[in-house]
Structure formats: C-alpha cells, structure tokens
Amino acid sequence: MDRHTVKLHNLDIDVYSMNTVVVGSGAAGLNAADSLYALGQRDMAIVTEGMKMGTSRNTGSDKQTYYKLTLSGDAPDSVAEMARTLFGGGCMHGDIALVEAALSARSFYKLANIGVPFPHNKYGEYIGYKTDHDPRQRATSAGPLTSKYMTERLEEQVRNKGITVLDGFRVIGILTDRAESDANAIGLIALDMDKLGSPNMGFTLFNCTNIIYATGGPAGMYSTSVYPESQTGATGIAFEAGVKGINLTESQYGIASLKFRWNLSGTYQQVLPRYISTERDGSDEREFLPEHFKEPGRMLDAIFLKGYQWPFDPRKIGNFGSSLIDILVYIETQIKGRKVYLDFTRNPGHGNAGEDLDFSLLSRESHDYLKNSGALFGTPFERLKKMNRPAIDLYRNNGIDLEREYLEIAVCAQHNNGGLLGNIWWESNIRHFFPVGEVNGTFGVYRPGGSALNSTQVGSLRAAQYIHANYRGRHLDNDEFMRLAGGQVTTKVELAKRFMANLSCSSNVMDMRKAMQQRMSGIGAHIRTLEGVLQGMEECSLELASLGGNIRISSPYELPQAFINRDILITQYVYLSAIKEYITKGGKSRGSYLIRDQAGENSLEGLKEGFRYSIDEGNLSDRVCEMEFRMRGDEISCTAGWKPVRPVPADDNWFENVWNEYMNGEIFK
Description:
Helices cover 34% and strands 20% of the residues. Strands 1, 2, 3, 6, 7, 8, 9 and 20 form an 8-stranded mixed β-sheet that branches. Strands 12-11-18-15-13-14 form a 6-stranded antiparallel β-sheet. The chain is built from 19 helices and 26 strands. It folds into 3 domains: 2-248 and 419-480, FAD/NAD(P)-binding domain; 253-414, Flavocytochrome C3, Chain A, domain 1; 502-618, Up-down Bundle (Methane Monooxygenase Hydroxylase, Chain G, domain 1), CATH 1.20.58.100. It is of the alpha+beta class. Helix 1 (27-38) packs parallel to helix 14 (451-470) and helix 12 (380-387) packs across helix 13.
C-alpha cells in the first residue's frame, strides 16, 4: 500500500493506493479480507466507518440461524437439492443458488474451525433444525449472537495476519473510469472522520484495482427498523456510480423492539405475551388483538406461530393467520399513531382463566410445544425464564427488565433480499466492483432463514477467488488516476463546500433524516400503494435537488451525516422506482409486503381502514427486475429491465474435465 498527497482546488488530499479495498467490517468484509490473504494477496486494506458498527456485529434473535447443507443424520440432501430450495423462492438466479449451496459446507466449516461455537454431538455431527422455507434440517445456530461471534472470530483472523484496517472513514463516492454502465471501478472517495475540521474537510482518496463492497443493507431508509442505529448503508453512491440494482422490491419485515433493536421471533412469541396499545402519552392502555380474534384460541395460536413465522407474509393473513398480527400492529402504530408493546408480566386477557391462561384453548401444535418445554404454567415472563433464560438476559444487559416493564415494538425493516447486481463471482456490471453480503441482491422473494449469513461467507470468498485469478494487477499510476478521477472528486468537494456554506447554530440534518425515514416506513415497507410510491418518488426527487441549499449543519463534523442523507434519498428513489415498476407490471402482494388494492380479491373483515389486496400467484417469479439510476444535474431517473431467471445449472461434472478446467484456470472466467 502506497500513500501520497495530491493538491486539488488548493486542498491537500491523501491518496492511498493498493490492489484491493474492502469497504465494511462485518462478516462479509472481514471474510473477504481473510480469504484474499489466504490466497496470497497482501496489497489491500479494510476501510470502515467503525469496526464495531454494522448489522453483523449488533443484531440477532432468540436463536440466530445459519443455513447450510445438511451435515448430520441420515436424511438425504445434496448441493443440487439445496440449490433448488434457494431457487424455488422465486426471482433468484439458479447459478447463484448453486454457488450458495456448493460453498455452504466449506464456509461453515471455516467458521467452526476458527471458533464460532456451532453445536455438534459427541460424534462430531453438526446437527440441524428446520427454519422458514426449509424442507430439510439445514439450519444451525450458535445462539442469539451467531453473527456477532462470526465477526469477532473473523476479526481475530484479520488482526493476527496484520491486515491493514483503516478505521473511521465514511465512503461517499465510488470512482469509475467513465460514465457508461460498463465502466471499471478505479477507486473511492471517503471522509476521514478525524480530519473533518481540517481545510481539506477530511477528503481522502483510494486508488485501487478492486473494490469489495460490504456495506450492508440500506438500513438508513426506514424509521421503524431492526437494523442497528450505527448502520445507515451506502447503497446510494453505488447506484450513482452506475451499479445496477436487482430485486429491490424484496425485503423482510417483522415485529421487533424499538428501544433496543432486536427481532422478536422464536421464544419471545411462543411464551404468549400480551399485545397492548396506548396513546402516545401512555394513556388508554388496552389489548387490541381480541377485537379481531373473536376466538381466544385462534389468537393465542397466531401469537405462538409468530415465533417461527416471524417475517410478515401476506399469505399468512387470512383465516386468522400469524401475519394478521403484523397488520394490526401497523394499524395501531402507523395509522392510529399509538404505541404498541409486548407485555411479559401478565397473560393475555383473551383466554384468561382466572390467574392462569387456559392452555386447553391452544391447538395441538402450540400446546405440545409448551408441554414438551415444561412451560404450561405461569406468566409469559415465567415461561420465558423456563424456556430461554438468555433471551431475558439479553434485554436486561441492554437496560430493559422484561419482568417489570413493557417492551415497545413495531413492524420493522429487517433484511433486504435484493440489492446490488452481481454475477456468480459477485462482480457487478461495473467491473472490479464486488458487492458482497447483504448489499448484494442475491436472493429473491422468499429465502430460508439464515441463508443470508451463509451468503456473507460464500459471496466474499467468491470475490476473493476471482480477484486472485484475474485482477492481481497494480493500481493505476497516480497521474492517470487523477486524470480519470479528478472531475468526480471535484463534484463531491463542491457539494461539501455547499454543505459547509450552510453552517448554522442549529442543525436540521437529523430532523430531515427522520422525515425521510418516516416516509419510507409509511409507503415503502410492508404496506404499499401505487399512489404512495409515486408521491414518495416525487418528494425524493425534489429533496435531492434542493438538498445542497436546504440542509444546515452545525459544524464540519456533521459533513458525513449530510452525505448520508443524500445517499438515503438516492436509495429511496431507486427502491421506490422498483416498487412502482413491479406494481404497474401487475405485481400483487408477495414475499414480505402487501400491496393495497381497492379491487383486490381479499379483505380484512372488520377493519375500518379497508385493507383489500390480492395474493401474487407467481406470475413474475420467473423474472428479475434490474434497475439503473441516472443523474444529470438535478434531473434523476431510473430505467427498469426485466430478465428471465437463469435456471440451476446441470453441468456434466466428469472429474477429469473439471480437473483440467480448474488446473488451467478456465473456471475463473
């Protein structure tokens, strides 16, 4: 790695030059760097906004799942079978599904070997269980903090190998060698957070042959979100650079806590807590589920099933299904403006038999689960203490005592199945640019729980392999780099100066962001309408055009936050454009979202809000939608391209032929 200083518009700007920059320090980014090192690459660095930030380090559930090939027992499984499961979720390319399946065991065993405590029996079998959308028992877990353990162990590998980590840099631009979508990535623009108050405003450049982009999902788009507050995402600058998006309509949403952001799946629901609603000031407390579940047993079963049917799914609304709860929570919070809580201190009043719950009201599935867990007694808290004590400790360690206080909740954005376009080596349409982890649009409509963690490891390994095989060349020389990058850097510097010209004693950065996020949670999350999406696109366009003049910062140290707001606006516009494209193409409710439609075939009886919708019948599941963003001055637009999904490959894997192709390097093409 080389470092020198260039002068641009009378600013002295540091330039770091190397073969590969890994952006992000989550499970995907750390594994990318570690894999590159194992392949012999030393000319690289990890560039991160904060080593302890991001989703991998800060999220989980009651039992965070990792999905991989079956590695125990006598149940039949195969790479092709797992690939077909992934592919069967709809809108996923079969060749990528095959790669995800083929490398799942290799990636899993690496994590186990470096110390992630996945459980195995005394014979060494890594046992599994079924997760959502999983016909086998491929899931495993190291507990509530599986992804945290992954990042910690991978960080140890990175530190022990002496891989350079440049901490405290916010990336605000991706540099390419030309404007067309078939361009090459040549570097990055970042802000050094320690130098924001200097004359160069912290501007730092990276001149590199390759970028492995591991910035996580578009977390900053939403107000109701289970993404950690420290993560905002950086998808917008990739769109700005010409990287295409894919399957941007497809995300997961589910019930989560707000004060401490955490998925409320599994045991948190299976112990049957009360759902209560209050006015914003805490008055008018009431249970609201009984208004819509006239039979207590149906309500209790729906709460129980929410444990492992956690993501909102429009197919599970009818017949008093578990996702009806998500709709009712949405109405209370987003439409009525009330607060909703889970209460573990008392049993639900609907189905209460004196002091105790009438467990005979439960279905056999719910009843037997609690019976086998020795939990047919007491309050929800007492049942949780019996079944999953670490779930209580987790909240207590974050300042929340479930034995004494209510837990505020909402239906939150949790994971993006879509994202940036990548091929079977995770390289985007911009060559030398590799989005890995959640920022890559690997998945389609449905995916097995835990497959995202597998994808962080598989995708980052594939990117490292391809770079080692094809892109080991030296970075551009300094003069050529500045010739190609100078204009792009100047544009960002001028924007920063516009932000700096608006220095004020009072900042409006976070107020603007809050309004942007509330808009997206209202119109672009799990409840959508075409009218709302069109209005949101118009607002994003106007706000983006006026951002330089309207935003006010209180000091240079808010510059990164101003650029984050811009990134969020671009991201929202592109995602809303994809939703608009899907709806106007005739798309119906599917995955983890409901499209309200007054002509819809289904309605939620008894709801004054008039929810009508139709369930998608798979009419668009054999296609993917790619989105390309364009910005010319203040004019922005998106172009959609629909393409058929590629099937799962059925190659003739004759060993001698594959051996020769591998030895000759032909597979890395």
